[in-house]
Amino acid sequence: MIRSSVSNCPVPTDQQPLNEYEELKSSWLFRDATLDWRKYITKLAWIWGLSWLIAGPIAAASFPPHKYIAHFMLCGGAGASVGLVLILVRLYLGWFYVCDRLCSPTVFYEESGWYDGQTWTKPQEVLNRDRLIVSYEIKPILRRLQFTFAGLAGMYVTGTIVWHLF
């Protein structure tokens, strides 16, 4: 973990925005959003494929594959995408939370429990450092996730159009 450069920072180490960022960046789920595009898409494809284990039987119960293969595939694909969307929402919310904490000129923290919340105003040097991290590290991740959501929305629209053609 990176320690704040300000020695008089009263915020507990695990609640400092920079340390929250480092922890998020190294956690098993959230680091997937930082991978290069090919590995990122591969991970998403694996999640979507594993979601078929749940969506496939449900789609097969509604649209037997031997009779309605197109409807089965579209329904199963859309159902499997639900698992993918849930993972992506979790990724987006986690990265957005850290982004918000780093961008904010003040840091809300708790010393020992929910009842003793305090606020610390960041010195300008810390605020500048944190905002640089947001600009160069976190904003691209958030844009990637937004682009992924847009791609999924496009696939849903395309699937809906194809559904009505059959």
UniProtKB/TrEMBL annotation:
It comes from the Bacteria. The chain crosses the membrane at residues 44-63, 69-93, 145-165. Keywords: Membrane, Transmembrane, Transmembrane helix. Coiled coil: none annotated. InterPro entries: CGLD27-like. This is CGLD27 family protein. The lineage of its organism: Bacteria, Bacillati, Cyanobacteriota, Cyanophyceae, Nostocales. The gene is ycf36.
